[in-house]
Amino acid sequence: MKNSQKKWNIGDIYALKITDCKIKKYNGKYLIFNKISNVARGRKNTNVVRVKLADSIHEGMTKSEIDSFEYINISFFILEDFWKHNVTYEELPLLKKHTNEFNMIILNVLELVFPKRNLDQYLNDFIYIGSFELKPPENEFIPINCENIYYLYLVSGIANIYNSLINYYEYFNLKKSPVFSKEYSDYYNKVARDERIITELVLRTYSEKENNKRGIEEIKNFESLTYVGGEDKY
């Protein structure tokens, strides 16, 4: 199989073998990276990917084979935090379709940040598989606000890459995180709801004060003008 290329194109698929994972049962498996975008967090020429977990890989893998592998859930947010993701009240009914039983929206995208120097030494472990347009995760939501996309730096080391991703898999795919409980969901939604209400109140108050201040300034400016005459066009 070919080694990784320095420039990853949209659709490219790469594999990374897990060799020294802290959770030993994953050693020997593979992470499958599929690039889907060039832009994240206001930066261009970066690598936004979805990641899958596979038991093994081989030469000449087909799209259907890769589609059969499970996507890793990268992160989540609570429905009540919708306003932090640039979702309007009008769009809220659509967002609700992406929620699970815990009122959570699962995110599957990740930014893989390449270093500007010595890139070769970080990419040698990646194996090029091919280029396919894979079937996206069911009921996927991609954040409108790119600031909300998680990221991992290659310079932190290959082991950190796969240990982080396996932790995400354990937490959010196998649901070992405490967030997957009704108690947590009820509590976190209440906290998030209270935060949203307070924030909206503060912003509304600030906006009203600014509008009042602007109105007073406009009145002052108007009163300082002197009429010098002119044709009445009306």
Protein model, in words:
This protein is 31% helix and 21% strand. It has five helices and ten strands; from the N terminus they run E-E-E-E-H-E-E-H-E-E-H-E-E-H-H. The strands form two sheets. Strands 1, 2, 3, 4, 5, 8, 9 and 10 form an eight-stranded mixed beta sheet that branches. A two-stranded antiparallel ribbon has the order 6-7. The model is unreliable at 225-234 (pLDDT under 50).
Short description:
The protein has 234 residues and is of the alpha+beta class. The chain has helices at 63-67, 92-96, 119-123, 158-173, 182-223, and strands spanning 2-3, 12-17, 30-37, 47-54, 70-71, 75-78, 104-107, 109-113, 126-131, 150-153.
Characteristic key phrases:
eight-stranded mixed sheet, disordered C terminus, globular, 234 residues, alpha+beta, two-stranded antiparallel ribbon
Beta-strand share of residues: 15-25%
Distance between the termini: 80 Å
Oligomer: single chain
| Rg, alpha carbons | 25 Å
Largest sheet: 8 strands, mixed
Q: Helices and strands: which structural class?
A: alpha+beta
User: Low-confidence spans: pLDDT under 50, at least 5 residues?
Assistant: 225-234
Inertia-based shape: globular
Q: What is the share of helical residues?
A: 25-40%
Round the mean pLDDT to the nearest integer and report it: 81
Separate helix tally = 5
Tally of strands: 10
